[in-house]
Design brief:
InterPro entries: ADH-like_C (IPR013149), ADH-like_N (IPR013154), GroES-like_sf (IPR011032), NAD(P)-bd_dom_sf (IPR036291). Residues 142-266 form the Alcohol dehydrogenase-like C-terminal domain. GO terms for molecular function: S-(hydroxymethyl)glutathione dehydrogenase [NAD(P)+] activity; zinc ion binding. α3 packs across α4 (142-153). The protein is built from nine helices and 13 strands. It is of the alpha/beta class. The chain has helices at residues 38-41, 106-109, 115-127, 142-153, 168-175, 190-198, 212-220, 264-276, 295-303; strands spanning 8-9, 25-28, 68-69, 76-77, 97-99, 134-138, 158-162, 179-181, 204-207, 228-231, 253-256, 286-291, 309-313.
Length: 324
């Protein structure tokens, strides 16, 4: 859950890049799309053979080298998540750059690089939530609230937000949450409460917390026979799923979703257009703005649960135009 890095305008392009030019408004993406590998040609995945998200990759793909050097000693500064956007200038593989409508407000488009695409896409592409469905969202951070936005746009009849932070209640209701559950205020497991609220469980649950205990509660909160759980949280430990294989025989399913199953370069421009038409309330996600040099304060706001996205800017805090 990173602060919203500064969106981009292309300064120059390298040899062989034909789909972008200087001056284009773009969004960097961590899950790239080369467009030519077997993965990119398949309609069954949004992963790319060469440019899929890889937190351990720290160099450019084509030549295995860095493009950044320290001013002090000339040592390489390694790349991160295909983007390296916490800087005034960056260098990216063209497979990880999405051209967007120049009329789209850049401060809003920064959100498409992660939380909005991940949450809305999980609803529309991965789960394919149907009108009138019941939904539970575990973890009401930026990704979780993007799930809420997607579920609202798809016409879900009941959207249950689950979070241990009571401050998420008001924000969640603003975004479309119809019912709120705080596990700290319950005397029994969350899944039992949700089953009682929905007559057996929700049709779709989304885990957005990166917590294995939450994964299990999300799974058990769905209706047996047809419930689907989508895992979106980042799990940094080597611990395994807290499920017994026989529990899958009750008809509940569980899947993971990367970048909301969007193919970044070919499908994200459409999402940008949809957001400009109001499919998601993008400004609601930007709760703070800080100058770039206060990036550590932005991280602390996230750690303390005080912000959804803190937009970092280089100079003027007035970001209601299309200028970077």
């Amino acid at each position: 859950m990173l602060p919203a890095a500064i969106p981009r305008v292309v300064e120059s392009v390298g040899e062989g890049v034909t789909e972008l030019k200087a001056g284009d408004h773009v969004v960097p993406i961590f899950n790239g799309e080369c467009g030519s590998c077997d993965y990119c040609k398949s309609d069954k995945t949004n992963l790319c053979e060469k440019y899929r998200v890889n937190p351990l990759k720290s160099v450019m793909v084509n030549d295995g080298k860095c493009r950044f050097r320290s001013k002090e000693d000339g040592k390489p500064i390694f790349h991160f998540l295909n983007t390296s956007t916490f800087s005034e200038y960056t260098v990216l593989d063209s497979a990880c750059v999405v051209k967007i409508d120049p009329m789209a407000p850049l401060h809003q488009m920064a959100l498409l690089s992660c939380c909005i695409a991940t949450g809305v896409g999980a609803v529309c592409n991965t789960a394919r939530v149907q009108p009138g469905s019941t939904v539970a969202v575990f973890g009401l951070g930026a990704v979780g609230l993007a799930v809420v936005e997607g579920a609202r746009a798809r016409g879900a009849s009941k959207i249950i937000g689950v979070d241990v932070n009571p401050d998420k209640l008001t924000k969640g209701q603003t975004m479309g949450v119809t019912h709120f559950v705080n596990p700290k205020e319950l005397e029994k497991p969350v899944h039992e409460v949700i089953r009682e609220m929905t007559g057996g469980g929700v049709e779709y649950s989304f885990e957005c917390a990166g917590n294995l205990d939450v994964v299990r509660e999300a799974f058990l909160s769905t209706h047996d026979g047809w419930g689907l759980t989508v895992v979106l949280g980042v799990h940094a430990t080597p611990a395994m799923l807290p499920l017994h294989p026989m529990e899958l025989f009750d008809g509940r399913r569980i899947v993971g979703s990367v970048f909301g199953d969007f193919k970044g370069k070919s499908q994200l421009p459409r999402l940008a257009q949809d957001c400009m038409r109001g499919v998601a309330k993008l400004d609601e996600f930007i709760t703070h703005q800080l100058p770039f040099e206060k990036i550590n304060e932005a991280f602390q706001l996230l750690v303390r649960g005080k912000s959804l996205r803190c937009l970092l800017h280089l100079s003027s805090p007035h970001l209601n135009s299309t200028k970077p």
